[in-house]
Specification:
Elements lengths: L7 H8 L3 H8 L7 H14 L5 H8 L9
Amino acid sequence: MNRQLPTLEDVAREAGVSRATVSRVINGVRNVDAGIQDQVRQAIERTGYAPNRAARSLVTRRAETIALV
């Protein structure tokens, strides 16, 4: 069984908003209407979306990890 994890696109489709709006809600940008934020958060819960840390580190070029030697 090769089930893919939900993506921002899946959450956006479920909430009826754009992928950019989902990203803004996840990243805490404040210029998103409170009602839309609630829709997106509910869609995140329904889809089981969880941010992919590996993908985030590729985009930002920061792993935010500490190595001990």
